[in-house]
């Protein structure tokens, strides 16, 4: 559903097999993945697995990876943003917002009505970020990843 694009001074391209191991290691070392018990091995398997419904994109800064976005489509009258991470050096510069704007535009062009995401209830930065990008809470998913931990289901309506 997404397509190669220029986002700010970076390029959005599909994830390559060689991206997976360093990305998985970086994700496994930081919240929320570290707190939820994800391992680098498991994340690497996820990034490389054979799954025709999972689009995997990288925001590239030349030869370096600035961020990653995984999108499950078809999902629920719109795609599910299964994984979104800007690596620490690239946060707070508006890149996450630009990435979501690109995703919303592409989904709208495909005639889709929603984009969905989840964030752990304690991930206040992510929840604030998504709210600012027009996402609304659509539900609470108890014990989805870890017992006792709620995931918040978020919905961005593309039609008003
Ligand atoms: C959540 C995340 C994807 C947001 O991406 P980001 O690129 O940092 O987001 P933005 O820069 O667009 O917005 C973040 C904040 O920076 C501010 N900002 C936007 N443009 C800015 C700019 N040019 N300069 C400085 N700050 C800016 C925004 O106002 C925003 O503030 P808010 O958090 O109060 O809404 C990123 O921080 C991240 O990967 N976090 C860790 C993983 C994670 O939690 N993933 C999501 C849930 S699983």
TrEMBL record:
<keyword id="KW-0012">Acyltransferase</keyword>
<feature type="domain" description="N-acetyltransferase">
    <location>
        <begin position="10"/>
        <end position="159"/>
    </location>
</feature>
<protein>
    <recommendedName>
        <fullName>N-acetyltransferase domain-containing protein</fullName>
    </recommendedName>
</protein>
<dbReference type="Pfam" id="PF00583">
    <property type="entry name" value="Acetyltransf_1"/>
</dbReference>
<dbReference type="InterPro" id="IPR050680">
    <property type="entry name" value="YpeA/RimI_acetyltransf"/>
</dbReference>
<dbReference type="InterPro" id="IPR000182">
    <property type="entry name" value="GNAT_dom"/>
</dbReference>
<dbReference type="InterPro" id="IPR016181">
    <property type="entry name" value="Acyl_CoA_acyltransferase"/>
</dbReference>
<keyword id="KW-0808">Transferase</keyword>
<dbReference type="GO" id="GO:0016747">
    <property type="term" value="F:acyltransferase activity, transferring groups other than amino-acyl groups"/>
</dbReference>
């Amino acid at each position: 559903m997404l397509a190669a694009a220029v986002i700010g001074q970076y390029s959005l391209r599909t994830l390559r097999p060689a991206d997976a191991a360093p990305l998985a290691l970086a994700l496994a070392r930081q919240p929320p993945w570290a707190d939820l018990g994800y391992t680098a091995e498991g994340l690497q398997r996820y990034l490389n697995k054979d799954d025709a419904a999972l689009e995997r994109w990288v925001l590239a800064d030349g030869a370096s990876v600035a961020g990653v976005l995984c999108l499950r489509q078809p999902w629920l009258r719109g795609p599910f943003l299964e994984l979104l991470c800007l690596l620490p050096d690239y946060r707070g510069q508006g890149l996450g917002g630009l990435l979501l704007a690109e995703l919303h535009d592409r989904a709208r062009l495909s005639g889709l009505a929603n984009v969905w995401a989840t964030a752990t209830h304690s991930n206040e930065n992510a929840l604030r970020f998504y709210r600012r990008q027009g996402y609304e809470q659509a539900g609470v998913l108890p014990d989805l990843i870890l017992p006792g931990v709620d995931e918040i289901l978020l919905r961005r309506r593309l039609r008003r």
